Amino acid sequence: MTTYREIFANREFRALFAGNAATVAGKTIQMLALSALVYASTGSPLLSALAFLGGLLPQALGAMTLLAYADRVRPRGFLAGWDVARAIAALVLASGVLPVWGMLLLIMAFGAVDALSGGVRNAILVDVLPGGFVLGRATLNVSVGAMQILGFATGGTLIATLGPHRALAVAAVFIAFSAVITFLGLRTRPPRATGRAGVSATWQGNRTLFANRSTRAVLLAAWVPNGLIVGAEAMYVPYAGDWAAVLFVAAAAGMLTGDLVIGRFVPPATLNRFITKLQALLAVPYLLFFLHPDLTVGAVAVFVASFGYAGTLGLQQRLIDHTPEDLRGQALGLDGSGRMTFQAIGAGTVGLVAEATGPATAMTVAAIASLTVTALLQPRLRAREDPRVAQPAGTSGSA
């Protein structure tokens, strides 16, 4: 599958696309409304930030404890059921019955399971679009960016006109719609793996993935260089002040353009050759910030750099190629949660550097560090070895 017409002719992909778009819009509205609600109740910027990003923080915990279930659930029932649970949680938040600490605990608990749901959703995309994962993943990435923009715009309008409680109720409607369309649009599939799941199985699966040099290199390449550049993006506000939105828009536009171009016009069979080049492109333009460029030059540099995020498409395809089917969901879930975690680490690390050097120098340091990691990992990414992760002795695919 190499064209948008082909993938959208697939009924299951249309359901995944619409369901994912509705979920992203609903979650974005929820994050914004909950942050506004907590700030109005407490006046605390810290608690407001936790309400906005708190659901992302526990994903590493979910990756370490729950990901074995990603290959041991029926995707259709799990994804639809999880959206129902998220819609109910949004209604609970909208009701106002929970204290602030209760709301924060609720979103963090759901955040831990989001790592699992991401693995299930990405893995079923491989089944729905045989040979078309890269284009399908790129298309979903574009929809995520568009729905986040729509979600922020809609959420802001709803909060201003209806208040945060009713905005949360609207978020619940979006997420419930996703549950319905996912359940009706996907067909029933059996789990990829059998056997017990849980913490020990998750740890064993993660160890299996990291024991293989190729898989380990792919995961590190997906996590570390990108996380460092996200750290550079965290410096937009200190660097540009009130005009930081220009840099954020340029970054979003570059990322969407990269997904569109690479996903559509680069065949999956040749995408491997572009991974390192795209990851280098992600960092090189940020070296210009050492010269303190004006806003126009800075925005162009950010746009060009963000095109390089499309390298993640090649890394995800390579991860699929190097992972046996009964670990596919866990591998993709680990990839997603690891990227979230390293983005937070990158933002914190670059922020610490900026405290001592200033934002422009910190962005340059992040670019140099990202390029260094990319260069160190390149030989591992080019190495040829068995494309499938070997199962540990004594196991039979049930992990």
Structure commentary:
The chain has 399 residues and is mainly alpha-helical. The chain folds into two domains: 1-196, Up-down Bundle (Growth Hormone, Chain: A), CATH 1.20.1250.20; 212-383, MFS general substrate transporter like domains (Growth Hormone, Chain: A), CATH 1.20.1250. The chain contains 17 helices and no strands. The protein has helices at 4-8, 11-42, 45-53, 59-65, 75-95, 100-128, 133-162, 164-185, 199-211, 213-233, 236-240, 244-265, 275-283, 295-307, 311-321, 328-357, 359-382. Helix 4 packs antiparallel against helix 16 (328-357). It is globular. InterPro entries: MFS_trans_sf (IPR036259). Its main location: membrane. The chain crosses the membrane at residues 21-40, 46-69, 90-113, 119-135, 142-162, 168-186, 217-237, 243-262, 297-315. This is Membrane protein.
